[in-house]
Amino acid sequence: MAILVTGGAGYIGSHTCVELLNKGEEVIIVDNFSNSSPDVIKKIGQITGKSVTVYSDDILSEAALHNIFTAHKISAVVHFAGLKAVGESVRVPMDYYYNNVSGTLCLCRVMAAHGCKKMAFSSSATVYGAGTGGPFREDDAVSAINPYGMTKVMIERILTDIAAADPKWGIALLRYFNPIGAHPSGLLGEDPTGIPNNLVPYIAQVASGKLARVQVYGDDYETPDGTGVRDYLHVSDLAAGHIKALEYVENHPGAEAVNLGTGTGYSVLEVLAAYEKACGKKLPYVIAPRREGDTAVCCADPAKAKRLLGWEAAIGLDEMCRDSWNYAKKLQKG
Ligand code: NAD
Ligand code: WQD
Questions:
Q1: 44-67: per-residue pLDDT in tens?
Q2: Per-residue pLDDT tens digits for 214-270
Q3: Best residue for ligand 2 mutational test, from 83, 142, 217 (most atoms within 8 Å of Cβ)
Q4: Closest C-alpha residue for ligand 2 atom 21
Q5: Which residues are catalytic?
Q6: What is the DSSP letter of 98?
Q7: Looking at ligand 2, which atom is closest to the CA of residue 290?
Q8: Is the beta carbon of 234 within 6 A of some atom in ligand 1?
Q9: pTM for the full model?
Q10: Please, what is the Cα angle at 110 between 106 and 113, to 5 degrees?
């Protein structure tokens, strides 16, 4: 039996494929490479010494998915494939709803047709909306403040309804907080095209000399140093959470929302200081206006993940920054 990983060539998907292969699973990737490179597949092979089967297809094609499910015995799906840029989702909402929501429906229809009803889905802390900052619990109200976030709210609802109607489904709705860092080998990491939207990829490009200075979006929030506080977790910890989630859904019917975060928040200036330590140099920054849609604080209550999945994050901020810089340095050298 194999695990199908949609979006497996992406940032979080590639790290999860490594974990799955290290555990001895057979891994099939389906990815349209809209936001990733086929080179990643080689890197996964280099790290694990194992090979994966790759389909360069779109999850919006039910025919392509049927072929995959016919060619392989698939026991479960880890569903990462999706568009994820908040600002872009405001500009092209139709693309986001079509790709993320319709893509998930195509996938579920094909899974059901082939009797595969176990899934770990990439949701996001964004479903807590404007919220109170947390620590968010899974039974807190969900809402969305942008089309990207609404795709996650909608998909969570769709998957919950599907699981309620048929007890053969077991689905983990994994609400990631802020994944950062890279594989310790420096072979896999996050390499966004264009100017990065997210803090750590932006800092990495300042450290590499590609960008002049970090813009700190607001220093007048109600936080200890006035800058935004987030719950950052290492992408390898996050990947390990998916293995635990797959074990859980195997024996538990229904759809279950689970936060994946550390429960500890760090401010923008604290992250910057940790990154300076990692790269061994001062990183220039300016205080810029607040970014629209940002909240002061967003942190997880990670208790449910520990209780249900037996998972908790183990890697600290210094290592997250060390691994991010290790990857960025390698990219810099080409
Ligand atoms: P990513 O863009 O690196 O990976 C997504 C992968 O899916 C890419 O390889 C892309 O080519 C592929 N893809 C997109 N649409 C597809 C389609 N229609 N058919 C086939 N492949 C398709 O993103 P990531 O950071 O690895 O995120 C993975 C998932 O986790 C996404 O669903 C994202 O919304 C969610 N998530 C990410 C974060 C984060 O901060 N990175 C936080 C919370 C949730
Ligand atoms: C972190 C902090 C910024 C960039 C986003 C999505 C969320 C989820 C994770 C997918 C904030 C500040 C940032 C910069 C800065 N993704 N910042 N200068 O906004 O918490 O979450 O990614 O689901 O949905 O919204 O992450 O890394 O963009 O920002 O000062 O150049 O860094 O204001 O306080 P965010 P981020």
A1: 999 999 999 999 999 999 999 999
A2: 999 999 999 999 999 999 999 999 999 999 999 999 999 999 999 999 999 999 999
A3: 217
A4: 178
A5: 148
A6: I
A7: 33
A8: no
A9: 0.98
A10: 145
